[in-house]
Amino acid sequence: MEVVVVESPNKVKTINKYLGRNYKVLASFGHVRDLPAKDGSVQPDNDFSMSWEVDGPSSKRLTDIAKAVKESDGLILATDPDREGEAISWHVLEVLKQKRALKDKPVKRVVFNSITKQAVLDAMANPRDIDPPLVDAYLARRALDYLVGFSLSPVLWRKLPGARSAGRVQSVALRFVCDRESEIERFIREDYWQVAAILGTPRNESFEARLTAFEGKKLQKLDISSQEQADDIKSMLDGATFKALSVEAKPTKRNPAPPFTTSTLQQAASSRLGFSAARTMQVAQRLYEGVDIGGETTGLITYMRTDGVQMAPEAINAARSAILKDFGDRYLPEKPRFYSTKAKNAQEAHEAIRPADFSRTPASIRQYVDADQFKLYDMIWKRAIASQMQPAEIERTTVEVEAVNGARAANLRAVGSVIRFDGFIAAYTEQKDDDAEDEENRRLPEIRTGESLSRQAINVTRHTTEPPPRYTEASFIKKMEELGIGRPSTYVATLKTLEDRDYVKIEQRRLIPQAKGRLVTAFLESFFEHYVEYDFTASLEEKLDEISDGRLAWKEVLRDFWRDFSKAIEDIKELRITDVLEALNEDLAPLIFPEREDGSNPRVCPKCGTGTLSLRLGRNGAFIGCSNYPECNYTRQFGAAGINGDGTAVEEGDKALGKDPYTGEEITLKSGRFGPYVQRGEGKEAKRASLPKGWSPDTIDHEKALALLSLPRDVGKHPETGKMISAGIGRYGPFVLHDGAYANLESIEDVFTVGLNRAVSVIAEKQSKGKGGRNGGTPAALKDLGPHPDGDGNVTVRDGRYGPYVNYGKVNATLPRGKDPQSVTMDEALTLIAEKAAKGGNGKKPARKAAAKKPAARKKA
Which residues contact 581 (CB under 8 A, 6 or more apart)? Predict the structure, then answer.
């Protein structure tokens, strides 16, 4: 019997079934060791020795693996087919050596790109050793990330209180998000006009032609810059005669795009399906690990962390067979198509993302998958099929038109396209911007060279230039790939880190850099510019690639980097805080000192009128203060506008909302250590109310503040008990309360609008379900993740008295703070359950032993 180690517990049963009784498959649950988050985990002065730590749950799993290996004939490491997977196999092997579990037993490394029986059996028939250069590249990357984080972050904490930390890749990614915001702030809008004519042919068919030249001068986009100029051109065209100077029909071909990589999959899922990058990878993971089809778990796609664009020869042949069957021989090229990536620093060791079996059409698997899985699989299947199909044949027609009015002349152009043969478009086509789509779909009528055209209308439209858009998750990932500053496995993690550190906020699918993030970026650009340069970070990634190819020694790369980086760290330690603030005042001027409507100097203190505003650093982070302090105590939160609606200064980031109509006390929006809140009055007697989840400080007005401060609200007396029902917002969300019993409301808004009848119904519904939620019992499942791979029963996500948790049998494991219950994956749930079980089953504290009774006093005789 041989022991097989995989990463995910979801694969265990499936692979064990494929391999049979002579194998025992165990899961590592991802990484088993990591560098402790403390100084000294990487020691540059000791030839970059690294200290690894095994956490509690991993220790138990490794013990189980070691025990199984001792009783086995050999070890097969079958972790994922990427660098991280190679590193996990290396870690497992190193721990087993330390435990002396191997002795002289053979160790093999196998990789499979899809979880199908054939792929697994082929992999087992072709084992190899662990790849040392791949492990070295992992060690170098991990050491670099650690050294940057644990050297640069303390500098940030000292020089920029409130800043969280900095990272090698995250800091560069944050920089281009902040750079885009600066572009938007500097952008100056310009008005321009476009002129188009609706013309008719002698056969009574009409089309649109746009002005391209006027009186011998070619017109660029912004050349018509006033209404007067546009009106003059319109007047000339209104009296002009029109003639078709030339008609050119040019056949073109559009070739299909390659199959998906991690980056292009995330981008397409965002634009076509509205999926976040994290959601895309979670759904793809489930498709890769497999779904139950006809009683057997079957992997539907190949491994989804890749930047390769090529498919295996057997997959190409299968795709060509599917094209012949589903579309016909006209859609099948004579020879297979081969692709090479254009992405910077791409690693093409792995296949592109494709169906594991092209005969499994989207329609055939629909009944076995959920809606998200179907949408993503449908897109992957169609894109992979399209990549091997004939090009689309398009006829692009361009008509040049001359307009003459006396001595004045103008030129116009009409463009249209006709798809003569749809080719790969029959299966899949990329989404384009509206203008490109309109031009491709616009069909022109028959127009003959030299014929006269009738004028039907002259249309003049005014437009305004727009600043470059903020990055979406899709364009953010595309930019990372273009710059070569990340790898497929890092895109989602990098974005999440920026969000978690409050450096970036995502609103309406756009990335908005926060004040804290811009402060960190400005600091790094001013004093660590070399280390946040795009080319420097990309060149470091290239060196890591050379290590993985065996062309560079990993410790040489570390020595070269550390020599210069450690010197830069020492230099910055000598900087005075005043030097730092002066540089940031200049770099962040548009954010810190926005222009005022009256045109006055934005750096003059609005309170005293004589002091100069400047960035200052306090215990809780950055703020804007007056140079006349302490005589003038004007301050405002970093990034805030600084002036109330009545023209008075905003004190310490507060925002005056008006007075309470009953008490006459001032109502203020404030920011505290636990987030924003509203306050009525001052001192210890002041009434305060935190902003509910989902309410932004920007949306709080006088009316909303009054509503919050009025809570809890009396709804009315219960018709049966005569006791008051109240509505409020508590630690666990909105509720109604009656006679000591709570019942949840669906939304925050319900707290302010719920009437007596509805409140009574909600309470009755809660009572009919029995005790649960706040009062004990088992709440209904928010999400069913499916059967546990190692036992009977399903793993579910539930909402309990102390927040959302995952449940399996009698084990309840609380979700990390801020984790969306709907985003929990099976892997995450199993890890939490295993950790909880390791601490003692269902996590309940052991009952306190009763104190031993003192012996009764002996009676005196």
Answer: 614, 615, 616, 617
